[in-house]
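Internal ticket - ligand job 180, guanosine-5'-monophosphate:
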Amino acid sequence: MRTIDEQGYHFEEWLTPTQIAKDVQQVANQISADYKDKEPLFVVVLNGAFVFAADLLRALEDVRCEVTFIRVSSYYGMASTGQLEFIVPLQQVVDQRDVIIIEDIIDTGLTIHQLKAHMRAHGATSVRVATMLFKPNKLEYDDAKPEYVGREMTDEFVIGYGLDFDGFVRNLDAIYKVKE
Ligand code: 5GP
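stdout (structure tokens):
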């Protein structure tokens, strides 16, 4: 098993690239089935979701779509600050669009809770969420429960496949879990 040492913490490989690819394909299949006759607008939440989004969007079948990006920040180190900051705001009109937000991971759900409200306030017809990882035990906002999930997990801190540790290790091809 591969391991990574980062900033004094020890991480062990949890999902291999092969396992990730299977999870992503399963999410893509569900979205393809649900949006075949629609023209959704995907809103990719930077920075973390860029790797998942690139794989997910290319795995879709027969979905005519647009893709845009938004950048928010709520985390420093391993803890949420509770405040969502719009670093790159929404640059595409979401009015009367079927929006699918692409996230890397849902933890408390604060980010998605606020982003959904933001999309609705700007007139989106529908807003759904696709996330690579979901920590259901930590969810604090009911409306942040994602419709499309790569994999549910317990409460540990994970890195890799777009997920960072203070800006580093996003480029790892697998997902690693911190070990105490
Ligand atoms: P939420 O708003 O749902 O509490 O947190 C969502 C954001 O927190 C994610 O987009 C991600 O940036 C960060 N986050 C939550 N859990 C983890 C984790 O286990 N590892 C990393 N690297 N980031 C996380």
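Auto-summary: Residues 17-156 form a domain with the Rossmann fold fold (CATH 3.40.50.2020). Strands lie at 3-6, 9-15, 41-46, 66-76, 79-88, 98-106, 126-134, 148-152, 158-159, 175-179.
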